[in-house]
Fold this sequence. Notes:
Blueprint lengths: L2 E9 L2 E8 H13 L4 H13 L10 H6 L11 H12 L2
Antiparallel strand pairs: 1-2
Amino acid sequence: MNNYYLYVYITMDTKLTLIADKEIIEKAKQYAKSQKISLSRLIESYLSSLVSKRSEEIEISPLVKSLSGVISLENDFEAKEKYADFLLEKYK
């Protein structure tokens, strides 16, 4: 794996140095170019989305809220195993 140092200027007075695989950097540059933004802006936008609070919380409908906690499962419940058992029984 070939690593390259990538210097990203996030604001005029802050510099960030990242080490990443050359192929990933090249693909990221191509993506940024296709989006008509700089790689720095792309990374800044990504980091901003990670650390910012979600202003739009997903609203849960009253019906879904009322169903919450209706079913309780055992701690060792194996959903895949139970589904496989269900399918085997269904297609006997």
